[in-house]
Amino acid sequence: MSEIELAALREEYGRAGLDEADLAPDPITMFERWLGEAVQAGLHEPNAMVVSTVGADGAPSSRMVLLKGVSKQGFVFFTNTGSRKGSELAGNDRCALLFPWHPLERQVRVDGVASPLPREDVAAYFGGRPRGSQLGAHASHQSRPVAGRDELLAAYDEVSARFDGRDVPVPDEWGGYLVVPEAVEFWQGRPGRMHDRLVYRPTTQGWRAERLAP
Ligand SMILES: Cc1cc2nc3c(=O)[nH]c(=O)nc-3n(C[C@H](O)[C@H](O)[C@H](O)COP(=O)(O)O)c2cc1C
């Protein structure tokens, strides 16, 4: 097997800069601007983000999830509440989001607090999903062990037959979360590792941004 020289893999960044004067007054407007640029640039799944949670034993865990909404309230994603992330959030609502927009030499980091979305918001989103995904959500008890792929496929067939000819209801263990941000960092790669890092935090006078050393 040929060895990959990881120590030699590096990129020089120089596409853009991020100055204090470029910042929107609040991180959500700023995030929407960068998300728009990620979409415009044709990035694959620009709404894919890494969500990190912490278990009862203090161990962190991370996984990709799709951002399905952003507003002044915060960031929204949907998942199975009985999954590892769901049970970790039930015990500790603090979490982190990361948007890895490598082709733009950017990342956005969010530290926040997650709360379950109201059932009507979950139902509204679930109702708009493709039928196959709705059936899959019933068939898969996310993050719990399965004996093999056959067991999963049999569960899918069973669910498919059960809901034949009618709407697929929202599974009890399916839900969504709103992550209310406590800090949002915008990172732009610059030459010589002199990257720009500007982090917003809430103050009594609204959001304030501070520069961090790269
Ligand atoms: C690009 C991408 C998008 C994903 N989007 C979601 C999502 O929106 N919701 C979800 O539950 N899992 C999503 N997944 C699967 C998760 O990464 C993960 O495997 C699953 O949620 C179980 O995670 P957990 O066991 O840590 O709870 C996505 C995976 C990828 C690679």
How would you describe this protein?
This protein is an alpha+beta fold and 214 residues long. The protein contains 5 helices and 9 strands. Strands 1, 2, 3, 4, 5, 6, 7, 8 and 9 form a 9-stranded antiparallel β-sheet that branches. Helix 4 packs across helix 5. It is globular. The two termini are 35 Å apart. The model has no long low-confidence stretch (mean pLDDT 97).
Structural class: alpha+beta
Cofactors, ions and other ligands in the entry: flavin mononucleotide
Helices, by number, come to 5
Portion in beta strands = 25-35%
What's the overall geometry? globular
- Spans of at least 5 consecutive residues with low confidence: none
SSE sequence, one letter per element: HEEEEHEEHHHEEE
> Roughly how many Å apart are the termini?
35 Å
Radius of gyration: 20 Å
Task: Kindly report the average pLDDT value.
Answer: 97
Largest sheet: 9 strands, antiparallel
Helix percentage: 25-40%
Number of strands: 9
Outline the secondary-structure elements.
Elements (H helix, E strand, L loop, with lengths): L26 H14 L7 E7 L5 E7 L2 E3 L2 E7 L3 H8 L2 E8 L4 E11 L2 H9 L3 H9 L9 H14 L11 E15 L7 E8 L2 E6 L3
Helix pairs in contact: 4-5
Bound molecules: flavin mononucleotide (FMN).
List keywords for this structure.
globular; 214 residues; binds flavin mononucleotide; alpha+beta; 5 helices
